[in-house]
Specification:
Helix content: 55-70%
Radius of gyration: 17 Å
Number of helices: 9
Number of strands: 2
Strand order of the largest sheet: 1-2
Shape: globular
Largest sheet: 2 strands, antiparallel
Distance between the termini: 25 Å
Structural class: mainly alpha
Number of domains: 1
Order of helices and strands: EHHHHHEHHHH
Length: about 190
């Protein structure tokens, strides 16, 4: 299966089976591969990485708001948006917002629907958001804080280290241990 994403100029930014290394950005390249996209063109690696972490940035804001306000509603909305993104990737609200704003600028990178590893990560993150909402609703504050801390750590790992636990687990569950290990930021 070929997954294509195009830059604003319409030129193919990634293609199936590419062999070019991403040069000075191995952690960014590994993140892109871990998300299920094909080998990025070296000149597009940084901009594609920035496009792909747009969604985790918004999720991080939601996680922080949910934690600060102990808001069942915030976590429920995060759950709904993440599961919607996974179930209907062509109508992903994060992708649509990115493509209509930053992705539409000259030289911007346009995102196509998410491949399976990224959708799996969205599903897993949505499940964690639901767990937070349910724990808050049930009045299990200490348990909610533990799950919220795990959620916060996972979001920070994506943004600070280029490591997506959800996509990594997807590859492990599919029996792709070697590939999963090769996509670690430090690999």
């Amino acid at each position: 299966m070929t997954i294509q994403a195009t830059s604003h100029s319409g030129r193919a930014a990634i293609s199936s089976g590419g062999t070019a290394a991403a040069g000075r950005h191995p952690a960014k390249r590994n993140f892109i591969l871990q998300q299920g996209f094909a080998e990025p063109a070296p000149e597009d690696c940084s901009i594609q990485y920035s496009a792909l972490v747009f969604q985790p940035r918004i999720v991080l804001v939601g996680v922080v708001a949910g934690i600060l306000f102990q808001s069942q509603a915030v976590f429920s909305i995060l759950c709904a948006m993440l599961w919607w993104s996974a179930l209907v990737p062509k109508l992903n609200p994060f992708r649509a917002l990115y493509n209509r704003t930053l992705g539409s600028r000259p030289g911007g990178f346009r995102l196509d629907p998410s491949p399976a590893p990224r959708r799996a990560a969205e599903t897993e993150a949505g499940a964690v958001a639901l767990a937070c909402a349910l724990l808050i609703h049930a009045g299990f504050g200490p348990a909610a804080y533990v799950i919220e801390a795990i959620f916060l750590a996972a979001a920070l790992a994506v943004l600070g280290g280029g490591f997506c636990l959800g996509s990594f687990v997807y590859h492990l569950l599919r029996g792709n241990l070697r590939f999963a290990l090769r996509t670690l930021p430090w690999a």
